[in-house]
Fold this protein.
Amino acid sequence: MIERIASPKKTREIIEKNQFYFKKNFGQNFLIDSNILEDIVESASITEDDFVLEVGPGIGSLTQVLAEHAKHVVCVEIDNHLIPILTETLQDYSNIEIMHGDILKININQLITEKNDDKPIKVVANLPYYITTPIIMDLLENKRKVSSITVMVQKEVAERMQAAPKTKDYGALTVAVQYYCNTEINKIVPPSCFMPQPKVASAVITLHVAQKPNIEVADEKLFFHIVKCAFGQRRKTLLNCLFNQGGFSFSKEDIVDILQECGLDEKIRGEALSLQDFGNLCNVIHAKL
Ligand code: SAM
């Protein structure tokens, strides 16, 4: 077996040899515990038939283990200083493709079409905090051909994805994830497994993307518009959020009627609505547009 990159000794050696400096703004906390890498690959159920997209390979710690289990791995790294390092650390693997770029600007559907004949892929990543919500929302909302997303995120963000209504963690991300996916928190990972150590614990969560969303809505765009609007100003009532930010041509009285038709009190806040409540609200609004 080729030496693991994910150890404190090897990681330090690579970093010193290349005079690499960690960039906080890119969320660079590299994994140095190879047991966790095996856990991630297992959580993602990676097999030799899988095409994997890895976001942010760093120095290649997770990429290496993914490549040993998957058919093909494409990894996208934003930091140009890491590209020559990755080219060297992953040189023994013929099934890895390294791309330099910002995952938020890459056309992921085009990548899937060109590199995997439009067949569904798995996304695996130790995600930097600042792109966690945008990348997950993008993958889900824009219906990328993705069968599962297994990510290391801040523990608190993983909990947010599984939160129940009326809790502080419940928000637009929760509703988007619960609309499309069944979720599983596989592991809690302490700061000591990273270099440098983050301030908070992390968690590995798998989002199994369902073939069909978990509820039926008349118009997905409208559904997400309503959800974002409802959580845009959490402390305001849903009535005020829909009236002020909805962009609908309804009067306040019309919206009160709509809420009543959905069995919702006019003083209710967005955070109190279940996934099904949002679905019903979307369908009633859709019928009146
Ligand atoms: N996968 C490595 C590991 O587990 O050790 C590194 C994970 S580190 C938490 C996040 C990585 O994502 C860094 O290498 C960082 O440079 C990269 N990154 C940050 N923002 C990115 C973006 N928008 N697109 C692609 N890569 C990004």
